[in-house]
Amino acid sequence: MSSSLRAAFVKIASGPDQGLAAAALCFAQVEYPDLDPQPYLDQLDEMGRAAREMVAAAERERTGRASRLAAVTHYLYDELGFEGDRQRYDDARNSLLNVVLDRRAGIPITLAVVLMEVSARAGVYLEGVNFPGHFLVRAPAAADEPGARDLLIDPFHRGAIVSEVDCSRLLRGHLGEDATLSPGMFATASRQQILVRMLLNLKRAYVRMRSFAHARHATELLLALDPSALTELRDRGLLAYHVEDYSSALRDLQSYLRLVPAPADDDDRREQEQVWEHVKTLKRRLATLN
User: Fold this and answer.
1) Distances, alpha carbon 196 to alpha carbons 12, 112, 202, in Å
2) Strands of 126-204, DSSP E
3) Residue 280: enclosing H or E segment and its boundaries?
């Protein structure tokens, strides 16, 4: 990965006035190095203008947060045809905003980015919710709506409003029948948390495809967002091993073992022992190359 792409991504991701779309389109260059983000940003601007007109029309008939939200979701899902991609859910391209805008299909978090970006341009404030296994969007209750409750939206299912029962069902489908809801599951997701989740999805998709070089690039960007992420440091080393960059693999895995806390349980101990075995193998391999 070029240092210029990494630097551009960090600058956009940390900039105070940048939206999610610019950062997501920047990291899409992992897959599409020649991608020009501007036409896609222009497309979102145009979608925002059209949605704003529909919101204004809705407010002439009926004011309120629900009617404004319904105007945006009608525009995106009914008029433009955005939908959840059930057939190719695990496709890496579903984590790339340019492809999602081209195909008008994606997974919950990329569709959430489209919904939030278009809504913001239309004057409707939404925020992301880092719900386990299925990203959601929230329309917070406004101060001028006494007694009103936040609205939770499922971007994968055509912007449907979801209830606590729906959320329980989603959670059990992800974590098992014994899973129960907790307030922390509905915390607002920061921009960095959303980008991290998108990159993690992308990395996992690349690993499933055995596209280790691309997965390594995604890990580079995760570490650029959070240099203290030891799991990503370990994974970058393991991915470097897969692409036969042995010196980089050894450096990362040794750094990981030096920084990682003492194992708290048997699982942690086994994991660290496996990394030590990789380090030993790398040292032997590098010694034969000298």
Assistant:
1) 14, 14, 10
2) 127-129, 136-139, 151-154, 160-162
3) helix 266-289
- The predicted pLDDT at position 229 comes to 97
In terms of domains, do 130 and 236 share one? no
151: in domain? yes
Tokens of 245: 């960059």
Whole-prediction pTM value?
A: 0.94
Euclidean distance between CA atoms 237 and 234, whole angstroms: 5
Q: Cα-Cα-Cα-Cα dihedral of 168, 174, 179, 183, to 10°? A: -60
Nearest to 71 by CA among 92, 95, 47: 47
pLDDT in tens, 61-74: 777 788 899 999 99
Same domain, 121 and 57: yes
Q: Are residues 136 and 279 in the same domain?
A: no
By residue range, what is the domain housing residue 264? 228-289
249, 166: one domain: no
Q: Is the pLDDT of residue 129 over 80?
A: yes
pLDDT grade for 2, boundaries at 50, 70 and 90? confident
User: Residue 126: phi, psi to the nearest 5?
Assistant: -130, 160
Question: For residues 139 and 149, is the Cβ–Cβ distance under 8 A?
Answer: no
Q: Is residue 217 part of a domain?
A: no
Residues 51 and 106 reside in one and the same domain: yes
Q: What is the pLDDT of residues 140-190, one digit of tens each?
A: 987 666 667 899 999 999 999 999 999 999 999 999 999 999 999 999 999
Angle, helix 191-208 to helix 108-121, in steps of 10 degrees: 150
Contacts of 248 (CB under 8 A, 6+ apart): 236, 237, 240
Q: How many domains does the chain have?
A: 2
